[in-house]
Amino acid sequence: MWAPSIRFRRGWWVVALAAFSTVPAWAQVSGFRDGAAKVHLSTGSNVGEWIVRGEASPRQQAIVVFVHGGPGLYTEQRRIDEGAVFRRAGFTTAYYDRAGGGVSERLPAAEYSFEREIADLEAYRVHLNAGRLILWGNSFGASLATAYVARYPEHVAALVLTSPGTFPGTTVERDFSRTERAPVVMSREMKSAAALIDGKGAAAESRLSQSDAGRIFDDFVGSQLADGFLCKGSGISPPALPGGGNLYVQRLVSASVAKVKPANIAPGRFPVLILRGSCDFMPPANAAQYASFLGGDVVTLDAVGHGLLEDRAAVDGAIANFLRRHFARP
C-alpha cells in the first residue's frame, strides 16, 4: 500500500499525495495534530498549520486556504480528506487553527474579536507568500472569508463557501425542523459560563479560565450541536470531534461579528461557489445574501445537512465542476 511521504521544509509539513491512492490520503498519516507546524504570525498569533500539496504536475499556482467554522473551533481531520477534490485539480491546500482553538496558542481574552481574525487571515496569507488565495470558507469560516474579501479583494482569486454561516453584520433565525436534533438546549454549566463571558467580557478570566471554559464548550458542541449538522433520519453518525474549542473565542467573536458590515465590492469580481444542503439549519435567504454581495451561484444539494456529510460525492462534484469552469490547468 502506498503511503504519503512527509518532509519538513521551511517550517511546513508537506504531504506528497498520489492521485492513484484509494485510501483517503490523510487517513494514512498518524498523529494528525502532532504533525502541525507552528507558525508565528505578524499579528502576534501563534497558530498550528498543515499544508498538503496538490496532485499531478504542473500544479496550480493559487493556494486553497481552508477557513474553518466556529467561532472558537478548529480544523478537523476530515476537512483535510475533503480537500482532496482541490488537490486532484492541482491545488495545494493549506489549513490553520485560528488563534485560541485546536493546536493554536491562546491569546489574552481581550484580544479575541472578528477584526483580529480578519487580521490573522491576512497575516497567514503573507506567511504563505501568496499574492492571491482561493478561500474555502466553511460555516462561520464563510462569514470570515467574506469579510476578508471585502477588506482585501486584491488578494482573492476565488471563493468556495460551504454551508455558509450568518452573513456578516446580520442576524439569522436558525431552523432545526429538518435536522436530526431539535433546537439546541444549553446545560446549566454552559448557560452560566456563556452569561459570565457575555456580561464581563475578557474580565471573566479572573473567575473562569479559558481551559475550563473550553471543556464546557467541547461538551456542549459534542452533545448538542453535532447532530444538528445532519438531516432528520439520515441514518449516519456525525464524526467524532477532537476537542480544543474555546468558549471565549466563541462568545467574544460572535458578539463582534454582527457589528462588522463588509464594504461593498463589485459582484462577480472573481469566481464564487456557494454550496449548501436542503436541510441546513441556516435558511436559504442567508445563502442568497452571500450571492447578492459576491455574485456567483448557490448550489443546493437535496437531503444534505449543514455538515455536508450525507452525499460527499455530490459535494465533490459541485466543487470539481466549479474548478474546471474557472481554472484551466497551467
From TrEMBL:
Record's keyword terms, sorted: Hydrolase, Signal
Family matches, as InterPro entries: AB_hydrolase_1, AB_hydrolase_fold, Peptidase_S33
Position of the signal peptide: 1-27
GO molecular function, one term: peptidase activity
Residue ranges annotated for the AB hydrolase-1 domain, each copy included: 63-170
Keyword field contains Hydrolase: yes
Entries under Pfam families matching the protein: Abhydrolase_1 (PF00561)
Cited SUPFAM superfamilies: alpha/beta-Hydrolases
GO process annotations (BP): proteolysis
Protein family (similarity comment): Belongs to the peptidase S33 family.
Protein name: Pimeloyl-ACP methyl ester carboxylesterase
